[in-house]
Structures are given as C-alpha cells and as structure tokens.
Hints:
Layout: E1 2-3, E2 6-10, E3 18-23, E4 25-28, E5 35-39, E6 42-46, E7 52-58, E8 60-62, E9 65-66, E10 69-70, E11 73-76, E12 79-82, E13 97-98, E14 105-109, E15 115-119, E16 124-126
Antiparallel strand pairs: 1-2, 2-3, 4-5, 5-6, 6-7, 8-11, 9-10, 11-12, 13-14, 14-15, 15-16
Amino acid sequence: MRRQGKVGFRFTSGSSTVVPPEYDEIRDLHHDGLLLVRQGAKWGVLNAKGRLTLPLEYDAIRATAANGFVLPVVEQAGRFGYLGPDGKLLTPIKYATAAPFAQDVARVTTATGQPGYLDSRGREFWDDK
C-alpha cells in the first residue's frame, strides 16, 4: 500500500499485521515474516508483528539466499555483519568484507586483513597466515 510517497505492507499469510505507510522502501525477505525497511538513507528490519527487530540505523542490508536460508549482509559505516533468522544481528558489525553465504559458510575479512569464514550460527574460523 502507498500513501503520500510512503509505502506500507499487509501480510497475506500467517499474520494479520498491517505495516502503516511510513517507509520509503519495503522488501519482503520471504523468511519468517521479516521485512527490510528503509526510511531516508537508513535500513532496519520489521518482524511479522510490525515491530522493529533491528533499528533504522544501517547504511545497507543486502539479502542473499543460499540453500533456502536467508542471512543478509548488514553494512554500517563501512563495516559489515550478518542478520540472523530472527531479524536481529547474528554477528557484530565488524568485518572489513563479508561475502554472501554459500552452503552455510561465508568468507569474511577483519579490519586488520585477517581472512576467515563464518558459519550460519555466527561461529568464526580463521585462516592461518
């Protein structure tokens, strides 16, 4: 739904929640009723009850799907982290690079350049230098 240049959202299955048209953009993750929402230049996450699970303070949230499981990359001030399936941060926003998940593993790099991997539970595994 759209009103005065803003968009809202009406869940069609699993929830009768209506998100009022107060966002500039809404993207449905198609995962447990989570929505990516943008106001101005900042992104956040709404749950199926219309509550923010992640505040509107992130520069970007990029959703990718691997094996049917969505773990979006979250960006803030040039650093990256991952969103968990509950709509909250799976990891801190601390990585210099964060690749999309592939087969439940994602490649990351620390601020000091240390390469490693992250599993879908947020556990880190580091390469030997």
